[in-house]
Amino acid sequence: MVRRDEVTEAAWERIAPLLPVSAGRGGRWKDHRQVLNAIVWKLRTGAPWRDIPDRYGSWKTAHERLRRWSADGTWDRILEHVQVHDDAVGEIEWTFHVDSSVVRAHQHAAGARRPQAATKGAASISAAPRVRASRSLRSMKRSGGPGAG
């Protein structure tokens, strides 16, 4: 009897021919179905790789197989085959959902930090002339303008 989180017999018959044959170098691979069930369990539960049940074998084997099959296009072939077959039979309902959620950031997250050297230089350059200019204007008003005296 197949567990509810494992690949069914019908699905396995369709997927098995699409999986790569043993790599030749390094010996035989573990049973593809056992490893595929481990990958399905991990992705369905969202649990860490190390928490894969012992009945599926080593988590390292499952992770490595997922990585290899992703890199060599095996998953793409399986998806394409299933989509083409099921769409031809009329078993796929093409429904698309768009997420329109909004994420708000804190006001302090609005800008990036400036480099320290630029911040110090800009503060001292921009603040100093303003102080001097305001002092010189006050002294000019008191004295009656430039050149008065």
From TrEMBL:
Q: Which residues form a coiled coil?
A: none
Which InterPro entries would you find in this protein's record? IS402-like_dom, Transposase_6_like
User: Which superkingdom, per the lineage?
Assistant: Bacteria
Q: Where is this region: Disordered?
A: 111-149
Task: Cite the Insertion element IS402-like domain residue spans from the record.
Answer: 7-78
- Biased region (Basic residues) positions are 132-141
Quote the biased-composition stretches of kind Low complexity, using this chain's numbering.
Answer: 117-128
Name assigned to this protein: Insertion element IS402-like domain-containing protein
- Origin organism is Cryptosporangium arvum DSM 44712
Q: What is the lineage of its organism?
A: Bacteria, Bacillati, Actinomycetota, Actinomycetes, Cryptosporangiales
